[in-house]
């Protein structure tokens, strides 16, 4: 008789920015500003990511596209790789992600792609502490996850090597 493995994921749904902590608000504002700077001439889909480091340093990234499409990179990985290159030993306290279409002012639900989830999981594992994730949700709402593992359960990481 086969047994079942159930995975429980908890997501806080915050109805507006007023329900965010100050740190979350600052990170989401930076992610929104970063999205405005995205280099996305092909998709016109602007994504912004912001990281809060353990010493309070804020770090941002935006998607960087390329005429050879697969050579581009998502906002989340742009931010994470740049952060790790500049601050290899600092822990990440929060990742915030948002997105919008160039033709519209309002922000859209931001769902990190699989590759970005995998890269977030790498840094979460490396630091040995959960990284909360704050995502732009629909209609001015926000989604707060306590850990990257909630975005990528059943994940492959260094323990499986
Ligand atoms: N994109 C991101 O920056 N992050 C994601 O997690 C999903 C997709 C970017 C890649 C590309 O520049 C554009 O959005 C459209 O896919």
From TrEMBL:
What's this protein's name? Cytidine deaminase
Give the catalytic activity: 2'-deoxycytidine + H2O + H(+) = 2'-deoxyuridine + NH4(+); cytidine + H2O + H(+) = uridine + NH4(+)
Q: What cofactors does the UniProt entry give for this protein?
A: Zn(2+)
Q: Which gene encodes it?
A: cdd
SUPFAM superfamilies, alphabetized: Cytidine deaminase-like
Q: What is its EC number?
A: 3.5.4.5
A Pfam family this protein belongs to? dCMP_cyt_deam_1
Ranges for the CMP/dCMP-type deaminase domain?
22-159
Query: What is the annotated role of this protein in its UniProt record?
Result: This enzyme scavenges exogenous and endogenous cytidine and 2'-deoxycytidine for UMP synthesis.
| Family designation | Belongs to the cytidine and deoxycytidylate deaminase family.
CDD domains xref list: cytidine_deaminase
InterPro entries for this protein? APOBEC/CMP_deaminase_Zn-bd, CMP_dCMP_dom, Cyt/Deoxycyt_deaminase, Cyt_deam_tetra, Cytidine_deaminase-like
Q: Which UniProt keywords apply?
A: Hydrolase, Metal-binding, Zinc
């Amino acid at each position: 008789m086969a047994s079942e493995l159930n995975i429980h994921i908890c997501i806080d749904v915050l109805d507006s920015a007023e329900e965010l902590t100050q740190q979350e608000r600052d990170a989401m504002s930076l992610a929104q500003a970063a999205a405005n700077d995205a280099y996305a001439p092909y998709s016109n889909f602007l994504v912004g990511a912001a990281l809060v480091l353990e010493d309070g340093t804020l770090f941002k990234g935006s998607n960087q596209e390329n005429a050879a499409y697969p050579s581009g990179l998502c906002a989340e990985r742009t931010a994470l790789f740049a952060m790790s290159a500049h601050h290899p030993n600092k822990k990440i306290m929060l990742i915030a992600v948002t997105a919008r279409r160039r033709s519209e002012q309002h922000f859209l639900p931001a769902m990190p792609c699989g590759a970005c989830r995998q890269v977030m999981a790498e840094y979460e594992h490396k630091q040995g502490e959960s990284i909360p994730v704050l995502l732009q949700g629909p209609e001015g709402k926000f989604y707060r996850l306590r850990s990257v593992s909630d975005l990528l359960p059943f994940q492959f990481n260094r323990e499986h090597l």
